[in-house]
């Protein structure tokens, strides 16, 4: 039924929320901005970085956005030691899905440099046929990056599945006319994802593979 599985990254494959929050808060302090609330930062996870900064600091000018981008990159990459890790079962399930012949892709709010770095760190990059990042196209929830992935793969939207943990992921899938899977363990509470009518809600990563197996057998 589904040939192409498109994954969000932060909050879906990797647990990075604490590091994102810490890095953003420290960036704001460096620039003398008002302290940023942790829940407000959690709310913007999934957006492209400029869009996230604008949401967190209304009225910030272009120079301020660039300053925040620079400080955030510093903290997230090297200046903050808050640990990040793959969610339980993510590696095994992704490897298994790849072996079963599913085509895998990533649609993320990360920039290209950040995604390539985490691909190398986790060793998972080889599993994904292609990926689209927020600095290469329009930020979520605009569906443009999904349209690009479909065009490049030649897969019909009816045979693709968008898997994500934020309302931005599910809205993007909905606007693309694509079925979605809601991840309950990520940045946004599952109640925020339900209105987008996902075909599946999962509480852990392996549930996706089990459900896909059932679809194949039915």
UniProtKB/TrEMBL annotation:
PANTHER family: HYDROLASE-RELATED, PHOSPHOGLYCOLATE PHOSPHATASE. GO terms for molecular function: phosphoglycolate phosphatase activity. Keywords: Hydrolase. NCBIfam families: HAD-SF-IA-v1, HAD-SF-IA-v3. It comes from Marinobacterium aestuarii. This is HAD family hydrolase. InterPro entries: HAD-like_hydrolase_sf, HAD-like_sf, HAD-SF_hydro_IA, HAD_2, HAD_sf, PGP-like_dom2. The keyword Metal-binding does not apply. It comes from the Bacteria. GO terms for cellular component: cytosol. GO terms for biological process: DNA repair.
């Amino acid at each position: 039924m589904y040939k192409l599985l498109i994954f969000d990254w932060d909050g879906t494959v990797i647990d990075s929320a604490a590091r994102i929050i810490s890095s953003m808060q420290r960036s704001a302090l460096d620039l003398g901005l008002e302290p940023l609330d942790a829940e407000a930062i959690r709310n913007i996870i999934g957006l492209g970085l400029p869009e996230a900064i604008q949401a967190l600091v209304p009225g910030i000018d272009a120079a301020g956005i660039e300053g925040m981008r620079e400080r955030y990159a510093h903290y997230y990459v090297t200046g903050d030691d808050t640990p990040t890790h793959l969610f339980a079962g993510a590696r095994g399930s992704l490897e298994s899905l790849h072996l079963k012949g599913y085509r895998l892709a990533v649609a993320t709010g990360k920039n290209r440099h950040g995604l390539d770095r985490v691909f190398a760190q986790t060793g998972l990059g080889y599993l994904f046929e292609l990926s689209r990042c927020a600095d290469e196209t329009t930020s979520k929830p605009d569906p443009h990056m999904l349209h690009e992935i479909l065009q490049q793969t030649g897969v019909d939207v009816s045979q693709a599945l968008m898997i994500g943990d934020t309302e931005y992921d599910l809205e993007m899938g909905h606007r693309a006319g694509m079925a979605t899977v809601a991840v309950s363990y990520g940045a946004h509470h599952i109640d925020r994802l339900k209105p987008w009518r996902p075909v599946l809600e999962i509480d852990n990563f392996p549930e996706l593979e089990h459900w896909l197996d059932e679809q194949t057998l039915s």
